[in-house]
Design goal:
heterodimer; A: alpha+beta; Immunoglobulin-like; 5-stranded mixed β-sheet; 10 strands; 38% helix; elongated; B: mainly alpha; two-stranded antiparallel ribbon; two-stranded antiparallel sheet; 18 helices; 62% helix; disordered N terminus
Chain lengths: 268, 592
């Protein structure tokens, strides 16, 4: 039976590891400036933890077979432990784990410690059960006021977020259901929610951040590849959670300018 | 390990002896005092165990419905009808809540801890038998209230076992968020009361009720694990209780602890200024230690079994104790790693991340010591040992995904995906459940006086071991590809469609694994009636429960109180008449 246990543990280990190595299922193609760094550190962690995983499982299976009971002629080793070994593996794992952590902290700092660059495209993300709306401040660079009592999701568009049309700053605000951003320029997101917590997740951008009612969370990312990317809600928000989807269109700067101008024109 | 400290303990032992005398109560005669409102820790242990068994059947059934819905969303089930997306989320919520509280917290600690802690330290009962009875009945009441949530208007809540407000705080947030969510919160609060009483009892019992010679460093690692778990419970459940009360106030009295001004479908909700993140901090201050509350008893037990069935002392007893203590301590400093994407300060994420990676160190130490215990042993692969080895394998597999999620950078793509579902199911769910199975197979002879059927036990092991890997390993793959958690269908997003075959595979694996549990259920009840009669010490183990009758008498040791001369892991002792030396054997093993 020791041999069966060895075979089963080894098979599970090798089959599991195969799908990781073959990348049969893997992170979706990266399309933001941060993706390369995150993916690289992901791969590093993979390699390190993968070695630990295979080594521990292989040893476990091997020991279960190798040290099977062969009768009283081969007695067990009577040892209570080894302090030197304990110290060695404690120090080694501490260095390994803390080291991995420190390696990735610069990426986190770049993503979250600094505010968006001055020239970033500003987009306000509004989450609600179960839709996303995106607001652009328009030529004045200012978001107009919104009022909770004006909110009517059934009307869609700017009424869905309760835009106060009497505020001069709101005159040129554009509210749309698909996010459009120019390529190779930082996007500053201001994340809001009007009801429950949602999470704004664009897998290809390696971007995720909760939108929390009562908070306006400022984040940023830089798309680097033109294309259309699905975005979705990653925080349980109610019965329509699974279909709270949306699209991000990354276009050239010219196309973006044209698109935004057309939206402005529609408003007038 | 053995010997050494005995001289200085005479005074303490005398006091402990007095404590024994004070707490011994006469064996009850009537059925109600004996089996229902019992003060006997062994009966209460069995009550907790069967409560957990009932709960796990409910929780497992809910997960089966979830897996069916994910693959065949439009199937019409006999008696149950259609599963709608909101029904799916109700299943998610109740599956998680029932499993975490009424199975993983209840069976290892309330069940086996209650039954075997007093016996393993040589006590006649727990320190506070009446409190013990109350703990169980409050927990039972909590379970009844939890199940009651299914039957109120709107049904059970859909806010997930983590119950994040405003979703869990505003009745108009969704179906089930009315009376169902109140029932859910009340049940959790009741559970906390039961858990707090139980924790006090475990701590006092461990500190004050040990028999003569049972120094802390001679306790079996199971007792250490139950002791540390109880300390975690004492510190964590108080916080969850308070958080639950605040949630009830927000829901019913109009306070705004958690809810800011919100608008649901154009209707303004009368709250102002509350912080949804406050709940997350309070919840996870409980929630992360809870992971260790679920897994520590299994760690203690599997350490025990690896030593017994390798016929070898545990490798690094002290290192194991210190590792469990550090896990317990660090466990209170890492709650923020559940909140990297929550809007919490990114600087604190950095601190929480370092602490979380640090907790990997004692976890790794335990794994090394388990391998060290197997190394050079004479391994007997009986069913408890198979499950113990299975536990180590699952602990490693569930553990290695931890350092991914612990790094905020990597948590960006992985947070709230099925990678997380796979991770915590392997390590907190299945590994702990393997601990419960191992404990059942190991202690069943002592509890019921009969052996469980070994062939059925082996079949149960192989199917469950392979089956759970087939369920939870693919969840990691799907999570990497970006599949979010708690999605009732994968048809709305284009990039998820290619993951449907993987999910179908998981559903079939779940069918097989769940069916295999029928083997266990049959074996359990059949063996109680018809199993082979067990001897007093069928596994040739050294700890105190194997020195007494099978099943143990009302006062555990039949009128005498054992004296302890040896450490708990004296196996393969050179020159000993058998290959092991009982803890009560006066021919003390030389100190090492």
């Amino acid at each position: 039976m020791g041999l069966v246990l060895l075979a089963v543990i080894w098979l599970i280990t090798f089959i599991s590891a195969y799908f990781f190595i073959a990348k049969t299922w893997w992170l979706p193609t990266g399309a933001s400036a941060a993706a390369a760094g995150i993916d690289h550190h992901f791969a590093t962690t993979y390699l390190v933890m993968g070695i630990v995983f295979v080594a521990a499982q292989v040893l476990l299976g091997f020991f279960a077979w190798k040290y099977r009971d062969r009768g009283p002629s081969s007695p067990a080793r009577y040892v209570h432990g080894n302090s030197m070994l304990e110290i060695v593996w404690t120090v080694l794992t501490a260095i390994l784990f803390i080291g991995l952590n420190l390696m990735s902290s610069s990426i986190w700092a770049a993503e979250r410690f600094r505010p968006a660059e001055p020239g970033a495209t500003q987009v306000e993300v509004n989450g609600m059960q179960f839709a996303w709306y995106f607001r652009y401040p328009g030529p004045d660079g200012k978001f107009g006021a919104t009022k909770p009592e004006l909110i009517d999701p059934s009307a869609g568009g700017e009424t869905a977020i309760g835009l106060d049309t009497t505020d001069p700053a709101s005159k040129d605000d554009v509210v749309v259901g698909t996010m459009v951003v120019p390529v190779n320029r930082e996007v500053e997101l201001i994340l809001r929610s009007q009801d429950v917590i949602h999470s704004f997740f664009i897998p290809n951008m390696r971007f995720k951040q909760d939108a929390v009612p009562g908070l306006a969370i400022h984040m940023h990312f830089t798309p680097v590849t033109i294309g259309e990317y699905e975005l979705t809600c990653a925080e349980l928000c109610g019965l329509g959670h699974y279909k709270m989807r949306g699209m991000v269109r990354v276009v050239s700067q010219e196309e973006f300018d044209k698109w935004l101008a057309a939206r402005e024109a529609e408003k007038q | 390990m053995a010997g050494g400290t005995r001289g200085g303990e005479t005074m303490m032992a005398t006091r402990e002896f007095a404590a024994h005398e004070a707490h011994v109560h006469a064996a009850p005669q009537g059925f109600i005092r004996k089996w229902i409102f019992s003060l006997d820790h062994k009966v209460i242990g069995l009550q907790y165990y069967f409560l957990a068994l009932t709960a796990v059947l409910v929780g497992m059934f809910l997960s089966l419905l979830m897996r069916i819905h994910l693959i065949w969303p439009n199937v019409h089930l006999p008696l149950l009808g259609d599963i709608k997306p909101e029904t799916y989320l109700t299943l998610v919520t109740m599956h998680g809540t029932i499993m975490v509280f009424f199975v993983l917290t209840t069976a290892p600690q309330g069940g086996f801890g209650n039954y075997f802690l007093p016996i393993q330290i040589g006590a006649a009962d727990m320190a506070f038998p009446v409190l013990n009875m109350l703990s169980f009945w409050v927990t039972f009441l909590a379970f009844v209230v939890m199940l009651g949530a299914f039957f109120v208007t709107g049904g059970a809540p859909l806010h997930g076992w983590t119950g994040y407000p405003p979703l869990s705080a505003v009745p108009s947030a969704g179906p089930g968020e009315g009376p169902g969510a109140d029932m859910w919160t009340v049940s959790i609060a009741l559970f906390c009361i039961g858990a707090l009483m139980s924790a006090l009892n475990f701590i006092t019992t461990t500190l004050d009720m040990r028999a003569k010679g049972m120094s802390m460093m001679r306790m079996p690692l199971t007792c250490w694990a139950w002791f540390i778990t109880a300390i975690l419970g004492l510190l964590a459940f108080g916080v969850l209780f308070s958080a639950g009360i605040l949630l009830l106030l927000d829901r019913n009295v109009g306070t705004s602890f958690y809810v800011p001004l919100t608008v649901f479908s154009g209707q303004i909700v009368a709250h102002k200024g509350g912080s949804p993140l406050l709940w997350q901090h309070l919840f996870w201050f409980f929630g992360h230690p809870e992971v260790y509350i679920a897994i520590l008893p299994a760690m203690g037990l599997c350490s025990q079994l690896l030593s017994v069935f390798s016929r070898k002392p545990i490798f690094g007893y002290k290192a194991m104790v210190y590792a469990m203590l550090s896990i317990g301590l660090l466990g209170f400093m890492v709650w923020g790693h559940h909140m990297f994407m929550s809007g919490m300060s990114p600087y604190s994420a950095f601190a929480f991340s370092i602490m979380t990676m640090a907790i990997g160190v004692p976890s790794a130490i335990k794994t090394f010591n388990w391998l060290g215990t197997l190394w050079g042993g004479r391994i007997r692969l009986a069913s408890p040992m198979l499950f113990a080895i299975g536990f180590v394998s699952l602990f490693v597999s569930g553990g290695i995904s931890g350092p991914f999620l612990a790094q905020p950078t990597l948590d960006i793509p992985l947070h709230d995906t099925s990678f997380v579902t796979g991770h915590f199911h392997l390590i907190m769910g299945v590994a702990s459940i393997f601990g419960i199975f191992a404990a059942t197979y190991y202690w069943f002879p002592k509890m019921f006086g009969r052996m469980m059927n070994e062939s059925l036990a082996q079949w149960h092991f192989w199917l469950t071991f392979v089956g759970t890997y087939c369920i939870f390993m693919p969840m990691h793959y799907a999570g990497m590809a970006g599949q979010p958690r708690r999605y009732s269908q994968f048809t709305e997003l284009h990039y998820l469609e290619k993951l449907i075959p993987l999910n179908t595979f998981i559903t079939f694996a779940a069918f097989v694994t769940i069916s295999a549990q029928l083997i266990f259920m049959f074996n359990l009840f059949w063996s109680m009636k018809a199993g082979k009669k067990a001897s007093d010490n069928p596994w040739e183990a050294t700890t105190l429960e194997w020195t007494t009758a099978t099943p143990p008498p009302h006062d555990n040791f039949g009128g005498h109180i054992p004296a302890i001369y040896n450490g708990p892991y004296e196996y393969g002792v050179p020159g000993a008449p058998r290959d092991y030396v009982m803890q009560t054997d006066p021919t003390t093993v030389a100190a090492h």
